[in-house]
Amino acid sequence: MAQHNAIGHGDHAERHGSLREYVIGFALSIILTIFPILAVMNHWFGNTATFLVLLITAALQFAVQLLFFMHLREEERPRYKLMTLILGLLIVAVVVYGSIWIMEHNMY
């Protein structure tokens, strides 16, 4: 007999979000996108405050994407998605820091 399991799916059924969760995530994403755009275009804050608003809303947007659309909170143990995410963020941080370090020390 042939196996009917798709690649990447185990014997357990994965739970996906409800329509309500997707609508909430979408609404939060829209708000977290429009607010910084309006803050920059209308000069609501000074330069430093605008920069902080952009950083905070970007971090919140990242969290919304992880929790509502990538289902990170619904993962059972072992948390492979979370470990993969942390490894990816570590690699990005090393590449960015290394690039800045090389550009700074290349001037001499």
Topology, element by element:
Layout: H1 19-41, H2 47-69, H3 80-105
- How far apart the termini lie comes to 68 Å
Distinct helical segment count: 3
Structural class: mainly alpha
Residue windows where pLDDT falls under 50 for at least 5 positions? none
Order of helices and strands: HHH
Helix content, binned percent = 55-70%
Overall morphology = flat
Multimerization state: single chain
| Cα gyration radius (Å) | 20 Å
Q: Report the β-strand fraction as a percent range.
A: under 5%
Number of domains: 2
Strand segment count: 0
The chain-level mean pLDDT equals: 85
Q: Largest sheet, described in full? A: none
Explained architecture:
The model has no long low-confidence stretch (mean pLDDT 85). 67% of the residues lie in helices and 0% in strands. The protein is flat. It has 108 residues and is an all-alpha fold. α1 packs antiparallel against α2 (47-69). The chain has 2 domains: 17-74; 76-108. 1% of the residues are buried. The N and C termini lie far apart (68 Å). The chain has helices at residues 19-41, 47-69, 80-105. It contains 3 helices and no strands. It is a multi-pass membrane protein. It comes from Paenibacillus glycinis. Keywords: Cell membrane, Electron transport, Membrane, Oxidoreductase, Transmembrane, Transmembrane helix, Transport.
